[in-house]
Amino acid sequence: MPRIDDLLAAGTTYSFEFFPPRTDAGERKLRDTLNELEPLGPSFVSVTYGAGGSTRERTHQIVVDMLERTTMTPMAHLTAVDHRRTELADILARYRDAGVRNILALRGDPPAGDEAPFWELERAVDLVGLAREVGDGQFAVGVAAHPEGHPLSPDLATDRRHLAAKLTAADFGVTQFFFEARAYLAMVEELAALGCDTPILPGVMPVTNVRQIERFAQLSGAAFPTALADRLHAVEDRPDEVRRIGVEMATQLCQDLLDAGAPGLHFYTLNSSTSTREIYANLGLPAATL
């Protein structure tokens, strides 16, 4: 099974992200989406991990099923919040033994309403270290990055110092979504000034629902440009037009990133294939021959 650090070393990567569904209808939709996106030949795909481990088994099963039943290379997300070190070590060992070779190590957010979460591993970099230990060199380990700064960070300079240390311990990074290439490029420059050159994949989420994307942006700390917001709000009662504009803007963002030398693109699909396939086609990216 390919490691993501090796894929990045070989050239530009294109990857898709999914979340574990909670209903039978959601599972059917995810299966359809996987069938529609697999022919594009993504470099890898990732599966998220619910707050506090709420999707632990579903995440594991989807990742292993992808490994065993598809041509796609999976990456499993794992969060430290509300887990003991031994629990995390057991999860990592299960992935190792199943042949999974790619992990995204996250500190994570507590479940909604959890007023007293605990972190036996308090930082994502601690989880990176545990993955190194349990994997015995088999895992490529990634971490998250916020181009405009983590919403809980006291200031951008502090965020960058912590991010540089985390990325130096890891093999690659994946960003939260953002709307303007300059946010990503500024982050890369600031990290380089700190001596960090670990490759960071920009995360792209095309707008398909105005209210939803505004909520996501607020939670992640991404600035929602006024010009884009105004344009979308003007047509928010016309879903097809919202999606068309969202795809158009995301396509331009992707092209700007590639032109600037980004090592790849990571698409947040929200378990739907349409917008991702349209952006992929707009960029002229070749589909795989399966």
Secondary structure blueprint with pairings:
Elements (H helix, E strand, L loop, with lengths): L3 H7 L2 E6 L5 H14 L6 E4 L8 H14 L4 E6 L5 H14 L3 E5 L17 H12 L4 E6 L10 H14 L2 E6 L3 H13 L6 E5 L5 H11 L5 H8 L5 H21 L4 E5 L5 H9 L8
Parallel strand pairs: 1-2, 1-8, 2-3, 3-4, 4-5, 5-6, 6-7, 7-8
Provide a concise account of the structure shown.
The chain is of the alpha/beta class.
What does this structure look like?
The protein is α/β, with parallel strands linked by helices. The chain has a single domain, classed as Alpha-Beta Barrel (TIM Barrel), CATH 3.20.20. Helix content is 47%, strand content 15%. The protein contains 11 helices and 8 strands. It has an 8-stranded parallel barrel, surrounded by 5 helices. Helix 4 packs across helix 5 and helix 5 runs parallel beside helix 6 (156-169). The radius of gyration is 18 Å and the shape is globular. The model has no long low-confidence stretch (mean pLDDT 91).
Count of the domains: 1
Radius of gyration: 18 Å
Query: Helix coverage percent of residues?
Result: 40-55%
Terminus-to-terminus distance: 17 Å
The SS-based structural class is: alpha/beta
Mean pLDDT, as a whole number?
91
Key descriptive features of the protein:
290 residues; alpha/beta; TIM Barrel; 11 helices; 8 strands; 47% helix
